[in-house]
Automatic annotation (TrEMBL):
Cleavable signal peptide: 1-26
Organism: Chitinophaga pollutisoli
Name of the protein: CarboxypepD_reg-like domain-containing protein
Keyword annotations: Signal
Superkingdom of the organism of origin: Bacteria
InterPro entries noted in UniProt: CarboxyPept-like_regulatory
Length: 256
């Protein structure tokens, strides 16, 4: 491939008398197809839909249901691979042309546990949430297609086109699934922050297996944790801890 590339550059310089800029030379490079599979670190969990983004060109795709991805790049580009709840990784494109295979193994992030204030303006959960949004921003801000495409106009002048095929495309389904997973993860991260085991242990005195058993039975819903104040939450936990110690088989309802 290198001799062909050098031949093309030589011919271009000859025809133009040497008046060719570096960007123009770069355009004759053949795009590289980067492809592979994205899984968990042990290779046992297929990650779908993982996000794949070319940091230089902005091109972005999702992995498919088998965890496989394919994206176009050029030598020197950096491909960022991410999945909600996992530590991101990146791939440097080293090929000049053809195909570069890069199988990605992502490590699961530790669940958010600390309940501490790290600044006067933002708490730890908020900072973590902001960082997650920035990481996935290009995908989150991609608009979903609707059944009625108002951007196109028909010859009849109605100003809309009914397009079930576009909305039903794999790309659109992946986008909707990704946004749903992102929202679910944000909710779980907030629950883990507001109802951390360290906080419950401080309130109840429970530790180890006892703490795990109690929190498995009694964990407030996301909606409740968004509205209840700290004093009432402490009371809610204390009442249930007392009942649980008396009889672990008894189950109180959330609103009792």
């Amino acid at each position: 491939m290198k001799p062909i590339r050098l031949y093309l550059i030589t011919m271009l310089l000859t025809l133009t008398g040497g008046a060719v800029s570096l960007p123009a030379l770069a355009q004759i490079e053949t795009p590289v197809t980067v492809r592979g599979q994205i899984t968990s670190i042990d290779g046992k969990i297929v990650l779908y839909p993982a996000t794949v983004r070319n940091k230089q060109t902005g091109a972005r795709v999702f992995s498919d249901q088998g965890g496989f991805y394919r994206i176009t790049a050029r030598q020197g580009d950096e491909i960022l691979v991410s999945f909600i709840g996992y530590v991101s990784d990146s791939v440097k494109v080293i090929n000049l042309a053809g195909t570069q295979v890069a199988n990605i193994r992502l490590k699961a992030r530790e669940r958010f546990l600390p309940q501490v204030e790290v600044s006067g303006k933002w708490n730890a959960y908020q900072l973590d949430s902001i960082a997650r949004y920035e990481e996935f921003k290009p995908f989150l801000e991609t608009k979903e297609k609707t059944l009625v495409n108002t951007e196109k106009r028909t010859d009849g002048g109605f100003g809309m086109v009914f397009s079930p095929f576009t909305r039903g495309s794999r790309k659109e389904k992946d986008l909707r699934r990704f946004k749903k997973l992102y929202e679910e993860n944000e909710r779980q991260q907030f629950v883990d922050y507001r109802y951390s085991k360290s906080f419950v242990s401080t309130v109840t005195g429970l530790k180890g297996d006892s703490l795990t058993q109690f929190t498995n039975i009694y964990t407030p819903s996301y909606g409740m944790l968004r509205t209840i104040n700290q004093e009432d939450l402490i009371m809610w936990i204390s009442v249930r801890a007392k009942k649980w110690r008396e009889n672990p088989a008894v189950r109180m309802k959330e609103n009792e």
